[in-house]
Design a protein that fits this description.
By secondary structure, the chain is mostly helical. About 80% of the residues lie in helices and about 0% in strands. It starts with 18 loop residues before the first helix and ends in a 9-residue tail after the last helix. This is Putative permease, Major facilitator Superfamily.
């Protein structure tokens, strides 16, 4: 392993010219494309098999539960062991799981129970991969580069969310087995890229023995810092209520009357807005009023959700999702930067694990919530109610977390 001192420092404006960061960026791109392709295939295949919106929601719940069960272990592991090795191992396991789904689909013996098993295993693996991959970034770049690096790393994820669903939707025409094979290949490429990353600075390893205190330290750290708690919980609750991702197969088939290609376009639309915003923020970082900008962005997210919910015209639905994705990216960058800058390195794994569970709650648990409310009120009612709920959350959180609303610069030192 190269010594951290052997890796030359790059200026903040030129972070993407750094070969080490580019390797990290492309690894994140590949693993996220692989996951997005996998998710598109699972959603469409499950709806083909069951035609039940509640089952779509159950996919999200089954994927989310392992991350909750493993949160304490995954954060502790990320702070104690080599983060590159953890990420590489997780991505290799994901490649094997996607290959297993391909074999089951091509063999014709796949059913909803098999899907749930594979999805649960993917969820368990990503419970270790996500916080560790996030905690690895500050060892790849300098502190001055970190805000731009977070935005650029987020752009990799959003580029993947554009490319992945489009590839998954169009490739699904050839069958789900083809989609899962592509997913397995991309997970494997990501594992190879991560294995070649050299660190700019050595990570501060957790050396304290395992105890209740060290395991729960991530929760305690966030609870004691209102800015972090407010940012993470605002993003979680807003996206949990306003997320419509689980219902996109229903909108594509039954409301907008498109096929798999239409689902691919809908899945890609939020990421188009998010990618554009991530690139803008990488070029023009938030230097003032970061907290108020985050609240405004979440409010726009709620309005865009309502517009999407009532739309029956594909171009308008896509436009609403583009705005939704752009506004969500502002919240993501603010939250992610605060988590990295306001957390000491030897706690980033545990804090990142808590953050990942909050993200999972907003995404996977939000899919379950959408499936339940769609079963009760129909898909349109579920999405519209979620958007209105997001607007109410913004108003409540501004009163509960005034320190977050007052946060000016992202790089302020936490109290």
């Amino acid at each position: 392993m190269s010594s951290p001192a052997t890796v030359p420092a790059a200026e903040p404006d030129s972070v993407f010219r750094d070969a080490v960061f580019r390797r990290y960026w492309f690894a994140r791109l590949c693993t996220t494309i692989g996951y997005q392709i996998f998710t598109v295939a699972v959603g469409w295949q499950m709806y083909d098999l069951t035609r039940d919106p509640l089952m779509l929601g159950m996919v999200g719940l089954v994927q989310f539960l392992p991350s909750v069960a493993l949160i304490l272990m995954s954060g502790h592991v990320a702070d104690r062991f080599d983060r590159r090795r953890i990420v590489r191992t997780c991505q290799s396991i994901e490649a094997l799981l996607a290959a297993g789904m391909a074999a089951a689909s091509l063999g014709g013996w796949i059913d909803s129970h098999h899907i749930f098993v594979f999805v649960a295993l993917i969820g368990a693996t990503r419970a270790f991969e996500n916080p560790t991959l996030q905690a690895l970034l500050p060892s790849v770049v300098t502190p001055r580069q970190l805000p731009r690096a977070v935005a650029l790393a987020s752009s990799a994820g959003q580029a993947a969310i554009i490319i992945g669903p489009a590839i998954g939707g169009f490739a699904y025409v050839a069958g789900p087995g083809v989609v899962y094979t592509l997913s397995a290949t991309l997970f494997g490429i990501a594992a190879v890229l991560v294995g070649g990353i050299t660190l700019r600075q050595a990570a501060q390893r957790l050396t304290a023995p395992v105890s209740v205190r060290t395991v729960f330290a991530g929760f305690a750290y966030i609870r004691g810092r209102p800015v972090l708690l407010g940012a993470i919980s605002l993003d979680m609750v807003a996206v949990l209520l306003g997320g419509a991702a689980a219902l996109l197969p229903i909108y594509a088939r039954d409301i907008l009357h498109t096929g798999p290609w239409g689902l691919g376009l809908l899945r890609s639309s939020p990421a188009i807005g998010a990618l554009a915003m991530a690139l803008w923020l990488a070029r023009h970082p938030l230097n003032r009023r970061a907290g108020r900008v985050m609240f405004a962005a979440v409010a726009v997210f709620g309005v865009a959700t309502v517009v999407f919910g009532i739309s029956t015209w594909l171009p308008l639905s896509m436009a609403a999702l583009v705005v939704l994705g752009a506004s969500d990216m502002i919240s993501v960058v603010v939250r992610s930067t605060l988590v990295q800058l306001d957390t000491p390195d030897d706690m980033r794994g545990r804090v990142g694990a808590v953050n990942s569970v909050f993200i999972g709650a907003s995404n996977q648990l939000g899919e379950f919530e959408s499936g339940v409310t769609a079963a009760l009120f129909g898909p349109v009612g579920a999405v519209v109610l979620g958007g209105v709920g997001t607007l109410l959350v913004v108003a409540v959180w501004m009163r509960l977390f005034p320190a977050l609303a007052a946060r000016d610069k992202l790089h302020e030192q936490p109290a």
